[in-house]
């Protein structure tokens, strides 16, 4: 079983749609959680951290369920520019602060 | 702030040659740098963790004699792919992390733009 699992997609949605991505992680000792965005042939860029209480940044909402070891990302009012691969990333702080990346979920927003 | 550069951004080489990739933290001192590899349509896989002034720690399955890592200063780490073969063709990305107690946040890794290696 992979440490961080995501549905690879692609998710094809029209502009303005709301789309949700899910992610599960296997290491219950994981302490920090992130969503990164990666555009084609580019490096990943931090989109947002994920906190236990849930957090929102504009059109993006992230939630964490530690009991179920589950992380989600909700994107409201999708824009064409949201088209990218979204990576669920887990940091097991006890293992030297290393990041473990999920396989990514590809989003394509169409006009 | 927190900018990481990589050089070169892309390289094409013949099989059997060695390729050196540089990773630099431009505006902060990076105690630790990480090297990742990403094959097409796959996620980033950590290859090794490099701490300034000490030997790199390699992940299982990564040959340390093939992927030589040098982290000689707090702003520079290099990855040398020795005797590269077509199966080494990939997107190599480094990231850098600051020191505890200093900015930028120690808990965040800052990624370089990546180096695309093609071995013919």
User: Oligomeric state of the chains?
Assistant: heterodimer
Low-confidence stretches of chain A: none
Q: What characteristic shape of chain A results from the CA principal axes?
A: globular
Report the strand count of chain B. Answer: 11
The proportion of strand residues of chain A reads over 45%
Helix content bin of chain A: under 10%
Question: What would your notes on this structure say?
Answer:
The complex is a heterodimer of chains A (about 110) and B (about 120). Helix content of chain A is about 0%, strand content about 55%. Chain A is built from no helices and 11 strands. In chain A, the strands form 2 sheets. In chain A, strands 2, 4, 5, 9, 10 and 11 form a 6-stranded mixed β-sheet that branches. In chain A, strand 4 and strand 5 form a beta hairpin. Chain B has about 120 residues and is mostly beta strands. Chain B contains no helices and 11 strands. In chain B, the strands form 2 sheets. In chain B, strands 2, 4, 5, 6, 9, 10 and 11 form a 7-stranded mixed β-sheet that branches. In chain B, a hairpin with a 2-residue loop joins strand 7 and strand 8. The N and C termini of chain B lie far apart (about 35 Å).
Please give the structural blueprint.
The complex is a heterodimer of chains A (111) and B (120).
Chain A: E1 4-6, E2 11-14, E3 19-25, E4 32-38, E5 44-50, E6 55-57, E7 60-65, E8 70-75, E9 84-92, E10 98-101, E11 105-110
Chain B: E1 4-7, E2 10-13, E3 19-25, E4 32-38, E5 45-51, E6 57-58, E7 67-73, E8 76-81, E9 90-97, E10 110-111, E11 115-119
Parallel strand pairs in B: 2-11
Antiparallel strand pairs in B: 1-3, 3-8, 4-5, 4-9, 5-6, 7-8, 9-10, 9-11
């Amino acid at each position: 079983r992979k440490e961080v699992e995501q549905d690879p997609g692609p998710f094809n949605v029209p502009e303005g749609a709301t789309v949700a991505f899910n992610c599960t992680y296997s290491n219950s000792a994981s302490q920090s959680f992130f969503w990164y965005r990666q555009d084609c042939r580019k490096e990943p860029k931090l989109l947002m951290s994920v906190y236990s209480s849930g957090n929102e940044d504009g059109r993006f909402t992230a939630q964490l369920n530690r009991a179920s070891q589950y992380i989600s990302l909700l994107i409201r009012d999708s824009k064409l520019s949201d088209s990218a691969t979204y990576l669920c990333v887990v940091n097991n702080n006890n293992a030297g602060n290393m990041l473990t990346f999920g396989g990514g979920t590809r989003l394509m927003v169409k006009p | 702030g927190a900018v990481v550069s990589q050089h070169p951004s892309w390289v094409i080489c013949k099989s059997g040659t060695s390729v050196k990739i540089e990773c630099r933290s431009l505006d902060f001192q990076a105690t630790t740098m990480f090297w990742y590899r990403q094959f097409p349509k796959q996620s980033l896989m950590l290859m090794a963790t490099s701490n300034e002034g000490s030997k790199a720690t390699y992940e299982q399955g990564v040959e340390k004699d093939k992927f030589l890592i040098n982290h000689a200063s707090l702003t520079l780490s290099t990855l040398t792919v020795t005797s590269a073969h077509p199966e080494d063709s990939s997107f190599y990305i480094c990231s850098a992390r600051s020191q505890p107690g200093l900015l930028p946040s120690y808990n965040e890794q800052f990624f370089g733009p990546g180096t695309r290696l093609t071995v013919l």
